[in-house]
Amino acid sequence: MRIPSTQALRALDSFARHGSVWRAADELHLTRSAVSHQLRLLERELGFGLLERIGKGVALTARGRRYAHEVRKALVALGDAGAGNDAGSIGGSFSISCTPGFASLWLCTHIAAFQEIYPDVSLRILTPRRLEDVSNPDADAFIAFGDGNWPNRSVEMLCEVEFTPLCSPSLLNKLGGLSKPSDVLRGNLLHLGDFDDWSRWLALTRVVNPDPEGGIIFSDMNLVFSAAIAGQGIAMGDELTGRRALTDGRLVRPFDIAIRSPRSYYLVSEHSKSSHPILSAFANWLRLRLADTEAMARSAYA
């Protein structure tokens, strides 16, 4: 069987992750028509449909989603293999400052894979007091959560975040279910840092007379999830850091409605360190792992 072009496979992978041709075109530095052309060529080579029209847009077919998931795994494997060829030449110490929630709930569940590829790298993970803090002189790079405005720094967006209510199955049963958005007010609202995320979700869902400032404020996402898992209230969480708890059934998502956070996760470094071999290797590995996580999440909800 003839193997499709790598460019066509990357076009499919990018479209599957972003869900739109224009975002795929932006990521691949191509025109929208070029991405669409690659997808049509790929359909012709494969002999089955990848895309279907939904309203005014297009989306992957069920078979297209399954194929895109396999393509993502293959691209990740190729990336890891390529990285492994250079691994022997990369070594030394490197410190990454990472937000506590992202560090414990995502990075710490994947980091051994990086160490397997780069056994001569001594990686140190630090956590800041503030999610957007990139000031620690002991850190060579930062995974920060903010608006992307860090002047005089090299800044790369890693992933956007959507927040939605998450709670434990036991609390869901205790509350008699959550059938409509206003039902969340029957439980404690769990906040990270401030009331903004719950305020925006309650406004989006048009809950009448909401009280977003009720409940408990935590300074760390780990604490928010710990309280939610223990049935102490309803968290406004994201599926990236909550993936394991959702997969294990310790948390459930009662609503499909989510809000896009005005903040995102970014990889930040000083310009003088942006070309450091370890940072380049870590950044490439991080991109591939996050893309794989997103692809698996899309496949799970397909």
User: Beta-strand percentage?
Assistant: 15-25%
Q: If you average the pLDDT, what whole number results?
A: 86
CATH architectural name of the largest domain: 3-Layer(aba) Sandwich
Contiguous runs where pLDDT drops below 50 for at least 5 residues? none
Tell me the series of helices and strands, N- to C-terminal.
HHHEEHEHHEEEHEHEHEHEH
Strand order of the largest sheet: 4-3-5-10-6-9-7-8
- Total domain modules: 3
What is the fourth-level CATH superfamily of the largest domain?
Periplasmic binding protein-like II
For this entry, give a set of tags:
single chain; 302 residues; alpha/beta; D-Maltodextrin-Binding Protein, domain 2; 11 helices; globular
Could you characterize the architecture of this molecule?
The chain is α/β, with parallel strands linked by helices and 302 residues long. It folds into three domains: 6-85, Arc Repressor Mutant, subunit A; 91-158 and 264-300, 3-Layer(aba) Sandwich (D-Maltodextrin-Binding Protein, domain 2), CATH 3.40.190; 161-262, 3-Layer(aba) Sandwich (D-Maltodextrin-Binding Protein, domain 2). The protein has eleven helices and ten strands. The strands form two sheets. The protein has an eight-stranded mixed beta sheet with strand order 4-3-5-10-6-9-7-8, sandwiched between helices. Strands 1-2 form a two-stranded antiparallel ribbon. A hairpin with a 2-residue loop joins strand 1 and strand 2. Helix 1 packs across helix 2. It is globular, with a radius of gyration of 21 Å.
